[in-house]
Amino acid sequence: MGIAASGDPDLAYKVAKASAEEISACGVNWIMGPCLDVLTNTRNQPLGVRTTGDDPMQCSEYGVAFMKGYQEAGICTMGKHFPSYGNLEFLGSSLDVPTITESLEQLSLSALIPFRDAIKQGLDSIMVGGCAMSSAGLNVMHACLSDRVVDGLLRRELGFDGVVVSECLEMDSLCQNIGVNGGTVMAANAGCDILLLCRSFQHQLEAISGFKLGLENSMITTDRVRRSLNRVLAMKSRCTSWEKALNPPGINLLSRLQPSHTSLSTKAYNSSITVVRDQNGFLPLTNIIEPEEELLLLTPLVKPLAASAASRELSTHTSVDSPEPQWERGNPGLSGERVFRELGRSLARQRTGRVLHTSYTANGVRPQHESLINRASAVIVVTADANRNMYQNGFTKHVSMICNMQYTAGGEKKIKPLIVVAVSSPYDFSTDTSIGTYVCTYDFTETALVSLVKVLHGDITPTGSLPGTISRSEKLTQSKTHWLVETFNEERDALALDTLIKEIIEWSAPNQRSELRGATSNSFLLRQQNVLETHFVVRNSSTSALYGFCSTYFFKSTGTGAIGALFVDPGRRKLSIGQSLHDRAIRTLLQREGIKRFQLGSRLPSIYLGIPSDHSSERKRLRSWFANVGWNTALSRPVCSMVMRNLQSWSPPEGMAQSLQSAGAEFDLIRGWEHSRAIFDHIKTNNRQGLAEVYKLALSDPNSCGIVRAIRPEDGSIVGTVILYTASSSLAEFIPALKDEGSEFDATVSGGVSSPVISPSAGEYATILQSLILLGVKQVKKQGCASCVLDYMDGDGNFDGLSVMGFSTMHTFEEVSCDAATISRK
């Protein structure tokens, strides 16, 4: 990507040729490049800066340039990762298969373009990825094991007759799901000519055994083997011979190449450094800091850069008394931390004032950092893939906030110069204009950082530009309309909000039950002393119609700011109305005194408990939208609303009543405020927002069914509680599901169970939870209710146990929370 940032395809050709000449001198005749992926999804990607960007035509141009350079030096090439690793959906752990969800038509219009062009230009081999493919008419568990992908899409449709290489068959998801021996047979039958097994000797033996067994059982035909053998031999004939392979030129040739290649390397790195923004003219450093003033450098703790075995061996056996290695081009084994330490020294050599340097971690901004920021005259923050390592994003935003809130001795506000440098992915803060000075280097090798220092000190003028459509603001900075956002006025907007809610419910798909069913404008108004609520609307002042609504709550008891709802008129989506409402909500919550964290989804009112996840397609769209506005949707927890219908004919599952005795607790039912002290002491063990407010409603409401307690007999301490209510309870106003007249149960005779809290010291968590809910359901049934709603349930393994009791799921959500310093304010 750094080469693409130079804007010079000829430079790509020259760098590729130089690289190929050096590895050829060492006896290597095949390179696993170029990377031809089109990076259409910049989050959670394994590609990093190996791809040249998100523009398929530019990826093709540079990919072919790299390929030609390698081939000119006599090295065979391999395009990867077919059909594309550029837009993968990551489902969870390494055992889950990343999935391509684009259709073949979509792939053909974007991701396949670089592969198609490289094939026409003579690409020698292609690696087929191990990802899954899931779209209309195409469901593949692993691409490299599918004949539809290898023999069908790659060979027949794209016309590739070169060598096909499988993804490593030891990748966790493939190895655990299928096994190496079975995967070997599948890959061969799919059309792969070379199978990769990169780590374990035992797995390599297993693959050979599986391959032999496949031949013996005629699962792999000899004709298939001969075709693969001929392709491999044809590729070998183009790049090597036994004489060449056994007699590489080695050191003598490398010594002759070094001067010209060093010059080319310096040119490439100098050409790649990109200053994305410098709104306040902080570059070069001489513009903002006097020679004797102090400069602060803040760098993340990152994994070591890939080092050769020789350099690791050298560093392992270096004597303690040996002088520290010089920071030279010939030392590729420096760890990430040591490279950043040398960056600090390099910055210091250019000036007389001190350079203060310290690292940062996921622990955030510490008092040491604040002290150094206040002391320094300018600050440089380095990030490395902050779009994947969210702590770096939060740390940088926090430092930015500190730098923007500095004051002179006379009390006047001033801005402390802050320069943010992304040393890997340029997408860290590419579209965040609150970071006024933003520089990208595309890697953090020592050579790249030497070029960075030259730019920071003004020794060279940076000429790099962000590659792909990002440089033309065609994708990541789509044009936005900034709508006028007004504070919700109940007298003015209540009826219009009711109309908007009805429109959204009517717009819902026939098989999709809207979360807003049963809700009215009054459902969002808590009117509680300990909750600061401010709601926002985008409205047409001429017609009084509402186009969008957002509710926000600040719960003083936990310091949590919550977005409880955000919805837009279905006919006016994709017009930035939701973005405008979201931005206003975040800015307002950030101003609350004592704000500690943000939450997407609210227990009270119990309407949207998080990102709706009932339907997979809508879930993906919403997760993507919220991720793009700054939420880390990877850190979410499942919650749901459930219902038990036909309550009067319900009876507990056989044996469940007896489980009450194994809970090790006694149970009782209480009502009234006189129990508040003991209850609130108990629920302090759970820091979820809105919890205290729900219990206050229950304790102070004469119409409440009460609270079921689980008490430890030995000492009388409370180990569990759950709230009971009916349609006449004040809590019911904030639970639309209970009032949903269009539902299958009668809202006038419904009751509910809410907000279980189990003490961490309870021991049998699941048993006590089921016991509390079982007793709660029995009590609700005694009240004559025909149905029972569970308005909020954590999904950490509890759904199945409740289903056994007779509950069915109404709505599922993903609750997302983060520290206040982490949320992106764009």
UniProtKB/TrEMBL annotation:
GO terms (molecular function) for this protein are: acyltransferase activity, transferring groups other than amino-acyl groups; hydrolase activity, hydrolyzing O-glycosyl compounds
* Residue stretches in coiled coil: none
Q: Which InterPro entries match?
A: Acyl_CoA_acyltransferase, GH, Glyco_hydro_3_C_sf, Glyco_hydro_3_N, Glyco_hydro_3_N_sf, GNAT_dom, NagZ_Beta-hexosaminidase
Enumerate the UniProt keywords alphabetically: Glycoprotein, Glycosidase, Hydrolase
Q: Which residues form the Glycoside hydrolase family 3 N-terminal domain?
A: 1-234
Domain named N-acetyltransferase: residues: 532-600
- Gene3D superfamilies documented for this protein: Glycoside hydrolase family 3 C-terminal domain (3.40.50.1700), Glycoside hydrolase, family 3, N-terminal domain (3.20.20.300)
Query: Where do transmembrane segments lie in this chain?
Result: none
Q: Which SUPFAM superfamilies match?
A: (Trans)glycosidases, Acyl-CoA N-acyltransferases (Nat)
Q: Where is this region: Disordered?
A: 313-336
UniProt-listed Pfam families = Acetyltransf_1 (PF00583), Glyco_hydro_3 (PF00933)
Top-level taxon in the UniProt lineage: Eukaryota
Gene Ontology biological process terms from the UniProt entry: carbohydrate metabolic process; peptidoglycan turnover
Q: Which family does it belong to?
A: Belongs to the glycosyl hydrolase 3 family.
Q: Fetch the PANTHER family from UniProt.
A: BETA-HEXOSAMINIDASE-RELATED, PUTATIVE (AFU_ORTHOLOGUE AFUA_8G04060)-RELATED
Q: What is this protein called?
A: Glycoside hydrolase
Which species expresses this protein natively? Aureobasidium vineae
